[in-house]
Write a structure and sequence with these properties.
Helix content: 25-40%
Distance between the termini: 37 Å
Strand content: 5-15%
Shape: globular
Length: 169
Amino acid sequence: MDSLTPEERSKLMGRIRGKNTKPELAVRSILHRAGYRFSLHRKDLPGKPDIVLRKYNTVVFVHGCFWHRHATCKTASTPKSNVEFWQAKFDRNVANDTKHRRALKKLGWKVVTVWECELKKPAKVLARLRKELTAEHTEKVIPYPAQEDAEVFLAAEEQTKYGTKKRKR
């Protein structure tokens, strides 16, 4: 990757998904099957959390071990080429994670991080999430900012309407 121009590198990095990743879909499936209902990627919250459980005042971030530098995971290795670029990228990711976590806690949200490597044992992930969600559960709900402009999708809601328009070729 060190032989690439900045434009080429930017194109490659642009292909990496920021939401609806396989680990995120797995956590959503685990929660949904357990009966939890949630909203996704709230743009009005710091860091656009992957999963928002408003009833429990909790947000869940699903982090990839490589991108977010899971300290105890062997997949969090640093590539051998272009080390400076990668280290700067990882440092920015970790700094952003910390900034978003603090901002959410300041707003009264409980923040839970699920690491990609943890998903090898879904039962353990569910047990931990249940424990986190019931530990300090109160019926107090943190109100969202005005939602007239915000488009909100909840799990199991229809997100797209399919039309019968023909495409121009």
